[in-house]
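Budget justification aside, the reviewers requested a transparent look at the raw inputs and outputs of the sequence design task funded under Objective 1. We therefore reproduce one unedited record. The lines immediately below are the structure tokens for a 467-residue chain.
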């Protein structure tokens, strides 16, 4: 049975996964409908995630570098921040990209329907649009409905002084004193922004280390730098109560490092994201959604209903835009009959903090747990001419290699631009490079990318003394 409209491929959700899937399916000749509840395309990443956070992090970098230039004899004075202008600029960055997406959709004749979709049968989605209900029938569907901010229950969220990442990116004001609950990537990126803008930052994290997924030695240089800049970092500490008072938000902590109760102007809740699997009527038609809200898919991104696919944050960790886009492309190609599966060797992770932290492949923790016979080589940026010339020699480049085959197994970099630098190691892993391949590859001098070369040379024994 056909609905009001029929498409060969319907994509539910227009984030990086969804728009990539829709565009690829259209390029492969399919008639595509893209359903999105918000008026602008781009999902979390473009509107309230990756892009606005990086726009603000750029500004943070300008402010901190200008200040740090004092050590090189250049004094700019205290920055004057015009919040309205900063906000407008950030909006213009988002605007350029979402406008671009709209044009790309139009060019491919992808029909965009604005509204909230729910499955009604396994060939039909019902969409609540601003002008009434529409039914859309499909041959194939790609679920790309993403994730939402997670909350710890029991805190007074109706108080506007408790914000989440979306609220933090709005940049309504610069609070004097802010507590960030959650020392993961999103919390620490926002800390970087608000610290540069002049807010006193405290971070509280339940685990014993910031960014718990990464190796401890990778976090150290970041920890050392921000410990000096921030008011406090409480590890292995739990927030047990938040009381909304007229004078501020009174927070009670527990744990061995817990301070006395403290009062803050703002609290940023950054305790993770939850997949939207329970919010799209997937269970109505028998799609397997697990307890946490993830939709289960196989290596071809198929749900248990073979003509319905799932991609991006809604199908599992890591919740990253580049995973979503890769999966989106793949799902569209599979629908078009290509014989492909998800076969990436790794999905790199980056925290765009200051310094940045990036890692890919096996972490040392995972290698130990799996009993892998590995070797780890480290090149300290204190021996990199470029890092010294940038006055940022706290960085480190680590490579993890298989002791027997000498092949690269993983890499992790902390330092400015680590997020850009990590890609080379991802390519090396995808291509099965060994330490000799990397060490015989001529890298431009003087660059930070050389630190990867130098680490491989250390592994090969062709550099023994760093000076
Ligand atoms: P989403 O981007 O979540 O898009 C899903 C879309 O589906 C949304 O537009 C939603 O409105 C729509 N939708 C949901 N349900 C329905 C429905 N029933 N009907 C119609 N539409 C619906 N990742 C990175 O890789 N790099 C970063 O630097 C980075 N920074 C981030 C910073 C922040 C502050 C946040 C919050 C996230 C960040 N992420 C980053 C994560 C990244 O945003 C996500 O991994 C990515 O957006 C996931 O893409 P997606 O397509 O799966 O889903």
């Amino acid at each position: 049975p056909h609905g009001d409209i029929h498409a060969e491929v319907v994509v539910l959700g227009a984030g990086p996964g969804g728009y990539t899937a829709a565009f690829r399916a259209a390029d492969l000749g399919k008639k595509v409908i893209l359903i999105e509840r918000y008026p602008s395309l781009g999902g979390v990443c473009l509107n309230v995630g990756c892009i606005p956070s990086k726009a603000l992090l750029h500004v943070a970098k300008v402010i901190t570098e200008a200040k740090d230039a004092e050590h090189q004899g250049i004094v700019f004075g205290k920055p004057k921040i015009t919040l309205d202008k900063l906000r407008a600029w950030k909006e213009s960055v988002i605007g350029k990209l979402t406008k671009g997406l709209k044009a790309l959709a139009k060019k491919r004749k992808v029909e965009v329907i604005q509204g909230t979709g729910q499955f009604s049968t396994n060939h039909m989605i019902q969409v609540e649009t601003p002008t009434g209900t529409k039914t859309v029938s499909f041959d194939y569907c790609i679920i790309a409905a993403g994730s939402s901010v997670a909350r710890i229950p029991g805190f007074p969220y109706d108080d506007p002084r408790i914000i989440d990442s979306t609220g933090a990116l709005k940049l309504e004001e610069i609070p004097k004193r802010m507590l960030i609950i959650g020392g993961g990537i999103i919390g620490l990126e926002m800390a970087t922004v608000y610290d540069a803008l002049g807010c006193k930052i405290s971070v509280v994290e339940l685990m014993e280390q910031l960014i718990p997924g990464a190796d401890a030695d990778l976090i150290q240089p970041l920890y050392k730098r921000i410990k000096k800049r921030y008011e406090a970092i409480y590890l292995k500490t739990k927030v047990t109560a938040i009381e909304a008072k007229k004078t501020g938000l009174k927070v009670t902590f527990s744990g061995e490092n817990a301070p006395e109760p403290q009062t803050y102007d703002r609290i940023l809740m950054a305790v993770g994201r939850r997949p939207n699997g329970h919010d799209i009527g997937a269970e109505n038609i028998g799609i397997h959604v697990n307890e946490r809200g993830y939709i289960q898919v196989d290596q071809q991104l198929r749900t248990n209903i073979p003509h319905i696919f799932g991609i991006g944050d809604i199908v599992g960790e890591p919740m990253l835009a580049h995973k979503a886009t890769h999966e989106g492309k793949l799902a569209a190609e599979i629908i078009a009959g290509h014989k492909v599966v998800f076969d990436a060797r790794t999905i790199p992770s980056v925290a765009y903090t200051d310094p940045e932290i990036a890692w890919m492949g096996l972490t040392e923790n995972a290698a130990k747990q799996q009993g892998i016979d590995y070797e780890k080589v480290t090149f300290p940026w204190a021996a990199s001419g470029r890092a010294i010339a940038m006055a940022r020699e706290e960085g480190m480049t680590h490579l993890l290699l298989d002791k027997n085959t000498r092949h690269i197994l993983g890499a992790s970099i902390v330092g400015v631009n680590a997020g850009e630098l990590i890609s080379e190691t991802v390519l090396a892993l995808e291509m099965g490079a060994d330490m000799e391949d990397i060490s015989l590859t001529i890298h431009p001098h003087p660059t930070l990318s050389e630190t990867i070369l130098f680490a491989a040379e250390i592994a090969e024994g062709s550099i023994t003394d760093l000076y």
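Residues 12-18, 35-38, 43-45, 49-50, 53, 116-117, 144-147, 165, 186, 276, 279-280, 312-314, 319-322, 324, 352 surround flavin-adenine dinucleotide (CB under 6 Å). The radius of gyration is 24 Å. Computational costs for records of this kind are itemized in the attached budget.
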